[in-house]
Amino acid sequence: MNIIQTKDYNEMSRKAANLISAQIIMKPDCVLGLATGSTPEQTYAYLVDAYNNGDLDFSKVSSVNLDEYRGLTPDNDQSYRYFMQKNLFDHVNIKRENTFVPDGMELDAKKVCKDHDDIMRKLGGIDLQLLGLGLNGHIGFNEPSDDFPKGTHCVDLTESTIQANSRFFASIDEVPTQAYTMGIQSIMMAKKILIIVNGEAKADIVAKAFLGPVTPQVPASILQMHPDVTLVADEAALSIYNKQLKELND
Ligand code: F6R
Questions:
Q1: Which of 67, 68, 117, 127 is catalytic?
Q2: Which of 9, 18, 80, 176 could disulfide-link to 36, CB 3.0 to 4.6 Å?
Q3: 117-153 pLDDT per residue, tens
Q4: What is the pTM of this model?
Protein backbone atom coordinates (compact mmCIF):
# COMPACT_ATOMS: atom_id res chain seq x y z
CA MET A 1 0.00 0.00 0.00
CA ASN A 2 1.20 3.46 -0.86
CA ILE A 3 0.72 5.96 1.99
CA ILE A 4 0.85 9.68 1.35
CA GLN A 5 0.84 11.78 4.51
CA THR A 6 -0.33 15.35 4.25
CA LYS A 7 -0.20 18.28 6.63
CA ASP A 8 -3.94 18.84 6.73
CA TYR A 9 -7.34 18.31 5.08
CA ASN A 10 -6.67 20.84 2.34
CA GLU A 11 -3.42 19.20 1.25
CA MET A 12 -5.09 15.76 1.42
CA SER A 13 -7.83 17.03 -0.88
CA ARG A 14 -5.40 18.63 -3.35
CA LYS A 15 -3.27 15.49 -3.58
CA ALA A 16 -6.33 13.26 -4.00
CA ALA A 17 -7.70 15.53 -6.73
CA ASN A 18 -4.31 15.41 -8.48
CA LEU A 19 -4.37 11.60 -8.45
CA ILE A 20 -7.92 11.53 -9.85
CA SER A 21 -6.93 14.13 -12.48
CA ALA A 22 -3.97 11.98 -13.52
CA GLN A 23 -6.36 9.06 -14.02
CA ILE A 24 -8.67 11.15 -16.23
CA ILE A 25 -5.75 12.55 -18.24
CA MET A 26 -4.19 9.10 -18.74
CA LYS A 27 -7.52 7.50 -19.69
CA PRO A 28 -10.15 10.06 -20.76
CA ASP A 29 -12.89 7.39 -20.95
CA CYS A 30 -12.11 5.99 -17.52
CA VAL A 31 -14.68 4.70 -15.02
CA LEU A 32 -14.48 6.43 -11.65
CA GLY A 33 -15.96 4.89 -8.53
CA LEU A 34 -17.09 7.80 -6.35
CA ALA A 35 -17.84 8.37 -2.68
CA THR A 36 -19.86 10.95 -0.80
CA GLY A 37 -19.57 12.21 2.80
CA SER A 38 -17.63 15.14 4.19
CA THR A 39 -14.14 13.81 3.39
CA PRO A 40 -14.24 14.14 -0.45
CA GLU A 41 -15.99 17.53 -0.61
CA GLN A 42 -12.81 19.55 -1.07
CA THR A 43 -11.35 16.93 -3.43
CA TYR A 44 -14.36 17.47 -5.70
CA ALA A 45 -13.93 21.23 -5.39
CA TYR A 46 -10.33 20.88 -6.64
CA LEU A 47 -11.52 18.74 -9.55
CA VAL A 48 -14.03 21.45 -10.46
CA ASP A 49 -11.18 24.02 -10.34
CA ALA A 50 -9.07 21.84 -12.64
CA TYR A 51 -12.00 21.57 -15.04
CA ASN A 52 -12.55 25.35 -14.96
CA ASN A 53 -8.86 25.90 -15.65
CA GLY A 54 -9.17 23.78 -18.77
CA ASP A 55 -7.01 20.98 -17.36
CA LEU A 56 -9.70 18.27 -17.23
CA ASP A 57 -12.29 16.95 -19.63
CA PHE A 58 -15.05 14.73 -18.20
CA SER A 59 -16.93 14.28 -21.48
CA LYS A 60 -15.95 10.62 -21.82
CA VAL A 61 -15.75 9.79 -18.11
CA SER A 62 -18.30 7.46 -16.50
CA SER A 63 -18.90 7.29 -12.77
CA VAL A 64 -20.44 4.76 -10.45
CA ASN A 65 -21.25 5.71 -6.88
CA LEU A 66 -20.67 3.47 -3.92
CA ASP A 67 -23.98 3.92 -2.22
CA GLU A 68 -27.32 5.64 -1.73
CA TYR A 69 -29.83 5.85 1.09
CA ARG A 70 -32.89 3.68 0.53
CA GLY A 71 -36.05 5.78 0.33
CA LEU A 72 -34.59 9.22 -0.43
CA THR A 73 -35.57 11.00 -3.64
CA PRO A 74 -32.75 12.30 -5.89
CA ASP A 75 -33.79 15.87 -5.07
CA ASN A 76 -33.67 15.32 -1.31
CA ASP A 77 -30.68 17.38 -0.22
CA GLN A 78 -29.39 14.46 1.85
CA SER A 79 -29.48 11.94 -0.99
CA TYR A 80 -26.15 10.97 -2.46
CA ARG A 81 -27.39 11.76 -6.00
CA TYR A 82 -28.05 15.31 -4.80
CA PHE A 83 -24.61 15.44 -3.15
CA MET A 84 -22.88 14.37 -6.37
CA GLN A 85 -24.79 16.87 -8.50
CA LYS A 86 -24.05 19.71 -6.07
CA ASN A 87 -20.39 18.92 -5.44
CA LEU A 88 -19.24 17.69 -8.84
CA PHE A 89 -21.57 16.71 -11.67
CA ASP A 90 -23.33 20.10 -12.04
CA HIS A 91 -19.97 21.88 -12.42
CA VAL A 92 -18.12 19.73 -14.95
CA ASN A 93 -18.92 18.37 -18.41
CA ILE A 94 -19.68 14.80 -17.31
CA LYS A 95 -22.79 13.49 -19.10
CA ARG A 96 -25.70 12.84 -16.75
CA GLU A 97 -26.38 9.52 -18.51
CA ASN A 98 -22.83 8.40 -17.69
CA THR A 99 -23.27 8.90 -13.93
CA PHE A 100 -24.67 6.02 -11.93
CA VAL A 101 -25.87 6.29 -8.34
CA PRO A 102 -28.01 3.44 -6.94
CA ASP A 103 -31.69 4.36 -7.24
CA GLY A 104 -32.77 5.19 -3.68
CA MET A 105 -36.41 5.48 -4.69
CA GLU A 106 -36.58 1.94 -6.03
CA LEU A 107 -37.66 -0.12 -3.04
CA ASP A 108 -37.14 -3.43 -4.81
CA ALA A 109 -33.69 -4.05 -3.33
CA LYS A 110 -32.94 -7.03 -5.55
CA LYS A 111 -33.54 -4.97 -8.67
CA VAL A 112 -31.45 -1.97 -7.58
CA CYS A 113 -28.54 -4.19 -6.56
CA LYS A 114 -28.61 -6.26 -9.73
CA ASP A 115 -28.86 -3.10 -11.89
CA HIS A 116 -25.86 -1.54 -10.14
CA ASP A 117 -23.73 -4.68 -10.53
CA ASP A 118 -24.78 -4.98 -14.19
CA ILE A 119 -23.76 -1.37 -14.83
CA MET A 120 -20.28 -1.94 -13.40
CA ARG A 121 -19.91 -5.07 -15.48
CA LYS A 122 -21.10 -3.35 -18.66
CA LEU A 123 -18.69 -0.48 -18.11
CA GLY A 124 -15.85 -2.99 -17.90
CA GLY A 125 -15.09 -2.40 -14.20
CA ILE A 126 -13.88 0.58 -12.22
CA ASP A 127 -10.50 2.11 -13.05
CA LEU A 128 -10.15 4.19 -9.89
CA GLN A 129 -12.32 3.83 -6.81
CA LEU A 130 -12.37 6.74 -4.37
CA LEU A 131 -13.21 5.79 -0.77
CA GLY A 132 -13.72 7.50 2.56
CA LEU A 133 -13.43 5.63 5.85
CA GLY A 134 -16.21 5.30 8.41
CA LEU A 135 -15.45 5.70 12.11
CA ASN A 136 -16.23 2.00 12.57
CA GLY A 137 -14.06 0.97 9.60
CA HIS A 138 -16.84 0.80 7.04
CA ILE A 139 -16.19 1.44 3.35
CA GLY A 140 -19.22 2.26 1.28
CA PHE A 141 -21.90 1.14 3.72
CA ASN A 142 -20.23 -2.22 4.34
CA GLU A 143 -20.59 -2.25 8.10
CA PRO A 144 -18.61 -4.46 10.51
CA SER A 145 -20.02 -7.99 10.28
CA ASP A 146 -19.09 -11.66 10.33
CA ASP A 147 -18.22 -11.87 6.65
CA PHE A 148 -17.27 -9.65 3.73
CA PRO A 149 -20.36 -8.96 1.57
CA LYS A 150 -19.77 -9.49 -2.15
CA GLY A 151 -21.94 -7.58 -4.63
CA THR A 152 -24.25 -4.59 -4.24
CA HIS A 153 -26.72 -5.18 -1.41
CA CYS A 154 -29.16 -3.47 0.93
CA VAL A 155 -27.88 -2.86 4.46
CA ASP A 156 -29.32 -1.91 7.82
CA LEU A 157 -27.14 0.95 9.01
CA THR A 158 -25.53 0.51 12.41
CA GLU A 159 -26.36 2.77 15.33
CA SER A 160 -22.87 4.35 15.12
CA THR A 161 -23.29 5.19 11.41
CA ILE A 162 -26.79 6.61 11.95
CA GLN A 163 -25.36 8.68 14.80
CA ALA A 164 -22.39 9.88 12.69
CA ASN A 165 -24.63 10.79 9.73
CA SER A 166 -27.24 12.54 11.86
CA ARG A 167 -25.09 15.69 11.66
CA PHE A 168 -26.38 16.17 8.11
CA PHE A 169 -30.09 15.84 9.05
CA ALA A 170 -32.43 18.07 11.06
CA SER A 171 -32.88 15.28 13.60
CA ILE A 172 -31.62 11.73 14.10
CA ASP A 173 -35.13 10.38 13.35
CA GLU A 174 -34.78 11.63 9.78
CA VAL A 175 -31.64 9.58 9.06
CA PRO A 176 -32.63 6.65 6.84
CA THR A 177 -31.96 3.30 8.45
CA GLN A 178 -31.15 1.43 5.24
CA ALA A 179 -28.91 1.99 2.26
CA TYR A 180 -27.84 0.32 -0.95
CA THR A 181 -24.10 -0.19 -1.18
CA MET A 182 -21.54 -1.77 -3.44
CA GLY A 183 -20.16 -4.86 -1.79
CA ILE A 184 -16.59 -5.51 -0.75
CA GLN A 185 -16.02 -7.67 -3.80
CA SER A 186 -17.18 -4.90 -6.14
CA ILE A 187 -14.80 -2.46 -4.41
CA MET A 188 -11.90 -4.92 -4.45
CA MET A 189 -12.37 -5.46 -8.20
CA ALA A 190 -11.49 -1.82 -8.93
CA LYS A 191 -8.13 -1.60 -10.67
CA LYS A 192 -6.91 1.14 -8.33
CA ILE A 193 -8.21 2.33 -4.99
CA LEU A 194 -7.69 5.77 -3.49
CA ILE A 195 -8.79 6.12 0.14
CA ILE A 196 -8.76 9.50 1.81
CA VAL A 197 -8.95 10.10 5.55
CA ASN A 198 -8.53 13.13 7.75
CA GLY A 199 -8.78 14.14 11.38
CA GLU A 200 -7.84 12.79 14.77
CA ALA A 201 -11.23 11.10 15.27
CA LYS A 202 -10.24 8.55 12.62
CA ALA A 203 -6.68 7.91 13.91
CA ASP A 204 -7.69 4.80 15.84
CA ILE A 205 -9.60 3.19 12.96
CA VAL A 206 -6.81 4.01 10.45
CA ALA A 207 -4.34 2.08 12.63
CA LYS A 208 -6.78 -0.83 13.04
CA ALA A 209 -7.62 -0.97 9.33
CA PHE A 210 -4.10 -0.76 7.96
CA LEU A 211 -1.92 -2.33 10.67
CA GLY A 212 -4.38 -4.70 12.32
CA PRO A 213 -5.57 -8.13 11.13
CA VAL A 214 -7.74 -8.39 8.01
CA THR A 215 -11.21 -8.98 9.42
CA PRO A 216 -14.81 -8.24 8.38
CA GLN A 217 -15.17 -6.60 11.80
CA VAL A 218 -13.04 -3.80 10.27
CA PRO A 219 -14.24 -3.86 6.63
CA ALA A 220 -11.53 -1.48 5.36
CA SER A 221 -8.83 -3.93 6.53
CA ILE A 222 -9.55 -5.96 3.36
CA LEU A 223 -7.80 -3.18 1.42
CA GLN A 224 -4.49 -4.59 2.72
CA MET A 225 -5.08 -7.41 0.21
CA HIS A 226 -5.60 -5.13 -2.82
CA PRO A 227 -2.58 -4.78 -5.13
CA ASP A 228 -2.97 -1.05 -5.85
CA VAL A 229 -4.18 1.04 -2.91
CA THR A 230 -3.13 4.59 -2.12
CA LEU A 231 -4.05 6.06 1.24
CA VAL A 232 -3.89 9.85 1.36
CA ALA A 233 -4.33 10.93 4.96
CA ASP A 234 -3.42 13.91 7.07
CA GLU A 235 -1.00 13.80 10.01
CA ALA A 236 -3.82 13.68 12.55
CA ALA A 237 -5.45 10.62 10.95
CA LEU A 238 -2.07 8.86 10.72
CA SER A 239 -0.92 9.72 14.25
CA ILE A 240 -1.68 6.33 15.89
CA TYR A 241 -0.69 4.40 12.76
CA ASN A 242 2.73 6.13 12.72
CA LYS A 243 3.25 5.53 16.45
CA GLN A 244 2.38 1.84 16.21
CA LEU A 245 4.51 1.38 13.11
CA LYS A 246 7.49 2.94 14.89
CA GLU A 247 6.97 0.64 17.88
CA LEU A 248 6.86 -2.37 15.54
CA ASN A 249 10.08 -1.30 13.85
CA ASP A 250 12.00 -0.44 17.07
C1 F6R B 1 -20.03 7.54 1.38
C2 F6R B 1 -19.44 6.34 1.95
C3 F6R B 1 -19.03 6.24 3.36
C4 F6R B 1 -18.15 7.41 3.81
C5 F6R B 1 -17.74 7.25 5.27
C6 F6R B 1 -16.94 8.44 5.77
O7 F6R B 1 -20.34 7.35 0.02
O8 F6R B 1 -19.34 5.40 1.23
O9 F6R B 1 -18.32 5.04 3.55
O10 F6R B 1 -17.01 7.46 3.00
O11 F6R B 1 -18.87 7.12 6.07
O12 F6R B 1 -17.78 9.55 5.81
P13 F6R B 1 -17.24 11.02 6.07
O14 F6R B 1 -16.36 11.35 4.91
O15 F6R B 1 -18.45 11.88 6.13
O16 F6R B 1 -16.47 10.96 7.35
A1: 67
A2: 80
A3: 999 999 999 999 999 999 999 999 999 999 998 899 9
A4: 0.96
